[in-house]
Design a protein that fits this description.
There is one protein chain. This protein has 356 residues and is an alpha/beta fold. It has twelve helices and eleven strands. The protein has helices spanning 5-18, 29-39, 57-66, 81-89, 106-110, 134-151, 164-177, 191-205, 240-251, 253-261, 269-287, 330-355, and strands at residues 45-50, 70-77, 96-101, 115-118, 156-159, 186-188, 216-218, 225-227, 292-299, 307-315, 318-322. Strands 3-2-1-4-5-6 form a six-stranded parallel beta sheet, with helices on both faces. The chain has a three-stranded antiparallel beta sheet with strand order 9-10-11. A two-stranded antiparallel sheet has the order 7-8. The longest helix has 26 residues, at 330-355. The chain starts with a helix and ends with a helix. The chain binds nicotinamide-adenine-dinucleotide and (2S)-2-hydroxybutanedioic acid (LMR). It is found in: Peroxisome.
Length: 356
Amino acid sequence: MQPTSEANQRIARISAHLHPPNFQMEESPGLRRANCRAKGGAPGFKVAILGASGGIGQPLALLMKINPLVSVLHLYDVVNTPGVTADISHMDTGAVVRGFLGQQQLEEALAGMDLVIIPAGVPRKPGMTRDDLFNINAGIVRTLCEGIAKSCPKAIVNLISNPVNSTVPIAAEVFKRTGTYDPKRLLGVTMLDVVRANTFVAEVLGLDPREVDVPVVGGHAGVTILPLLSQVKPPCSFTPQEIDYLTSRIQNGGTEVVEAKAGAGSATLSMAYAAVKFADACLRGMRGDAGIVECAFVSSQVTELPFFASKVRLGRTGAEEVLPLGPLNEYERVGLEKAKKELAESIQKGVSFIKK
Ligand SMILES: NC(=O)c1ccc[n+]([C@@H]2O[C@H](COP(=O)([O-])OP(=O)(O)OC[C@H]3O[C@@H](n4cnc5c(N)ncnc54)[C@H](O)[C@@H]3O)[C@@H](O)[C@H]2O)c1
Ligand SMILES: O=C(O)C[C@H](O)C(=O)O
């Protein structure tokens, strides 16, 4: 059968969308209908991933596309978003996916977003600390947060880029400068420490990791990662050797992966899983679900430091309550003092980066 000229035009329009010369956002007929669906009040939140083409960004985009709470998914990066977007957009799940490439499209990528997840930045190689990433990632986080302040100042931000102990204070200073700072809306993602702690503790106890809940407080680097093994659920006890082993393994989980990857980056797959677990908790809180509690690195008064990771109650406006640490044993009190010393320096480094 001869295709009609109308059909030819339709195919040409779809093809133009799939192979755009400058990754313009001209809509194919299918995308136009999908956009109507998104605008037409389909239940769900608008979520942007900044750094969406990276090792974390790609599996994170895949998993967010599956999340039924997401109606619109914006994928932003400085490279490769046309390919990642085309690929993810073929998944037959509800979220409408749009891609954005390069800084000139940052504003558009962020406009109207409810939740912004940031895994943009360079990862570690063997022999590096997370702080060694500061010089590159600090500037990236500053630029992206300036974009958020301009385009979606009410969005909740999940910040993954390392060093989290410094990038969260950087983000806070950017938001303060632009008059958009709401401490409840800025959350450093430390969920991977909890995910690892649950896994390693479950191994020692011979339990299913899904049954285990280990609070991990402090920050997200070395000794600042402080698992509270005295507060594990279900209640249990450990020998001193088990406590040393578990504390060290949880604190060095990131380095374990960096070394195993031998120069090819740091944790990406487990991080994407952890990021989605955390983002999903934020979205459920934003929807109004009660009793959503997760650990995150936030503005805090549980210690004398301005930022600290602990359990927070997630609600419609983000981290609505920062929960106290609860009773610590002597081992944990010593760990807390070490953690606070390093954290204070990392926080100050982030603040000074913006104030200099
Ligand atoms: N919080 C955590 O628990 C945790 C866990 C793992 C990794 N990380 C951190 O996440 C970051 C990303 O790790 P990865 O393995 O995905 O790295 P990656 O290099 O694979 O990906 C990073 C992506 O960021 C993009 N990018 C760089 N500059 C950008 C900019 N200005 N705007 C937007 N995108 C930009 C890159 O193009 C790349 O696609 C690293 O800093 C890493 O240390 C944090
Ligand atoms: O260890 C890293 O550099 C990445 C991340 O912070 C992790 O904990 O896996």
